[in-house]
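Sample intake sheet
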Amino acid sequence: MTETFRKPSDEELKRKLTPMQYKVTQHEGTEPPFKNEYWDNHEQGIYVDVVSGEPLFSSLDKFESGTGWPSFTRPLVPANIKTKTDRQFLMTRTEVRSAHADSHLGHLFDDGPKPTGLRYCMNSASMRFIPASKLVAEGYGEYAKLFDSQRAK
C-alpha cells in the first residue's frame, strides 16, 4: 500500500466491484452469514481491502467464531484499520473501516478468544484473499515470511 493511493470515483467503484462488494464497502452493508466467500476459508494467506489492496488481516489470526463471517483476533497492519462508533439499528457498535480506502469492513466486538479478547467480524465482500503461495507474485512479499513455518509442517 503506497501513500499515493487515491480512492476511485463512485462510478468507477460501481464498475470495479460486484454489487455486494459495493453495498458493503460503500454503504455499510452486511452480507449474509454462512453465505459468503471467506467465512469457512482455512487456507494460509492474507486478506486485503478489495478497493485499495491495503493489507488488513492474516489467516494466522483468523478463528472460528460461529457467526458465519470471517473473524480475526487482530489486524495484520493496525495502521490500515480505523474504528468509529456505529449507532445504527438502535444499538452502539464499533465499526471497522480501512484507513486508506475508507471501506466499511465490519464490526469489532470484545468477545473474542485470547490473546486479544477481540473479534474483528468482517464481511468477505470487503476483502480479497491472497494465498501465502501467491504473496510474492501479487506484491505482498513482505508477508510471506509469516507463513514459512506453516509451510514446513
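Comment: The CA atoms of residues 81 and 98 lie 5 Å apart. The radius of gyration is 15 Å.
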